[in-house]
Every structure is written in structure tokens, then in C-alpha cells.
Amino acid sequence: MAVVEKLRDRIATQGVASAAEARALLRQVLIEELHPEYDRSIRALPHAGAPSVLLVVGVNGTGKTTTTGKLARVLVADGRRVLLGAADTFRAAAADQLQTWGERVGAGIVRGKEGADPAAVAFDAVAKGTDDGVDVVMIDTAGRLHTKTGLMDELDKVKRVVEKKAKVDEVLLVLDATIGQNGLSQAKVFAEVVDITGVVLTKLDGTAKGGIVYAVQHELGVPVKLVGLGEGADDLAPFEPTAFVDALLG
Ligand SMILES: Nc1nc2c(ncn2[C@@H]2O[C@H](COP(=O)(O)OP(=O)(O)O)[C@@H](O)[C@H]2O)c(=O)[nH]1
Ligand SMILES: [Mg+2]
Q1: What is the chain's Cα-based Rg?
Q2: Ligand 1 pocket: which residues have CB below 6 Å?
Q3: Structural contact between residues 167 and 47, judged by C-beta atoms closer than 8 angstroms
Q4: Low-confidence ranges of the chain (pLDDT < 50)
Q5: How far is CA 93 from CA 143, 216, 226, in A?
Q6: What is the pLDDT of residues 66-105, one digit of tens each?
Q7: Contact in structure between 219 and 185 (CB atoms under 8 Å)
Q8: Which ligand has the shortest distance to the CA of 68?
Q9: Which of 159, 119, 155, 110 is nearest to 137 (CA)?
């Protein structure tokens, strides 16, 4: 609606004479509505005596662990020392999956026993990262579709406990682009629990066009920072509004 209203306004005031001109205006408005001016950098620079801490949150299956692995790879390639924290302790397989990513991209891992307290594992990871002098600690969290209250308590606790040790620089919410508008309600629930600093929109390599970007940025007031374009280690890219709109318009 915001896009259509703005476009209608522009067309009326600018005396558009052809379909091509209207299309060019549509492109312009679509790009503007994505807020190209937002800061989309990932805050992953260490502080004096402490690593930067990134928390990765979202519903199960959206791509949190995969995104954690891919982003760790980008940071390692950038020359940073990265430690992963496996705070998804509900299934041993979840920590195994993260460990495999760590081995693949050259990042260490801290994991607990199956069923361990996620907040304790997150704390241990940040403590070890601080002792070892790493640059970045990335915490992969569990995201079961459980009750909102349970989710609130757990995530909130993870963040609070970590903050006893170091500042949390980024809370990245991972959303699956293929689930459309459902992503918006998920995003709202998470935003009530923790202050989201950026969104990662995954599975944009599928049939999804990712129109949810507009609603999510508008509702949360935080930028989509990264997009997932496949299951491979290199399939993560910065979100670029102009390129996104050009792909959208075909
Ligand atoms: N096609 C595609 N698949 C992805 C992407 N990101 C994650 N996946 C896949 O989605 C599934 C769930 O990912 P996972 O990281 O385990 O999700 P988590 O439960 O949120 O940790 C896996 O099969 C991933 O390979 C993406 O950007 N594109
Ligand atoms: Mg996972």
C-alpha cells in the first residue's frame, strides 16, 4: 500500500507519459521503500578485551545453523578468529551440525551436553572466547515453535546471561523467505523478546520473491542485512536493495 500510494503520487506530480517511465518510477519507489540508507554492516569487531558477540535467533528450520556457518566463513575469510557456541542443546544433532560447519570454515566450537541449559552454553562460549582472545563469538540458538512464553524466557535468559560477560553486538533474526507473510508474525514474536538488530532472509534461491522484506523492515524498523541463496558455504550475500528490486522486476 505504501509503495502504491507513493507511486500514484509520483506519477501524478511528475507527468508520466509512458509505461517505461511509470516502470522506472516504480523501480525508484520500490528501492526507496527498502531504505538503502540503513546501515547493513555486521557489527563483528572485537572490543577492548572482549570479543564481539552475535546471537542468531529464529524458528526451527529457517536456516539459523546454516547461516551461522556461512557467516563464520565470511568472518574467517576476513581474517577474524571465530568461536561458535552451540546453544541449541535440545538435540545432539544440532550441535553436531554446527561442529561440522566449524570444522569446514575454521572456527572453534563450545557445546554442552544434550539438554544442557542453553544460557550456560552461551555463557561458556563467550567466556572461552574472551580467554582465548578471539574476535567474534557466534551463538546459534534453538528455535522450536513452542509457546511464546517459553521462547521469551529462554531467549531473554540467553541474552541476559551473555551480557554479564560481554556486549551483544548483533541479534540476527533468521527468516525463511518461502513462508511469506507468516514470517511477519514470527518476526514480531521474536522482536518482543530481544532487540533484533538485523534480519537474514534465507532460501531466496527458491521460488520465493522475498516481498516479506518490505513488511518486516517496516514493522520492525530494522534492516534485512543478509540473504541466503542456497545451502552451500558461499551462499550468503549482503542484502542490496537495488539488486533486489531489479531481480523482483525481472
Ligand atoms: N535453499 C536453501 N536452503 C537453505 C538456506 N539456508 C538454509 N537452508 C537449508 O534449510 C534447512 C534448515 O537449515 P538449518 O540451518 O538447520 O535451520 P535451523 O533449524 O534454523 O538451524 C537445511 O536443509 C539447510 O541446508 C538457503 O539460503 N537456501
Ligand atoms: Mg539449527
Answers
A1: 19
A2: 58, 60-66, 143, 174, 202-203, 205-206, 228-231, 235
A3: yes
A4: none
A5: 14, 31, 26
A6: 999 999 999 999 999 999 999 999 888 999 999 999 999 9
A7: no
A8: 1
A9: 110
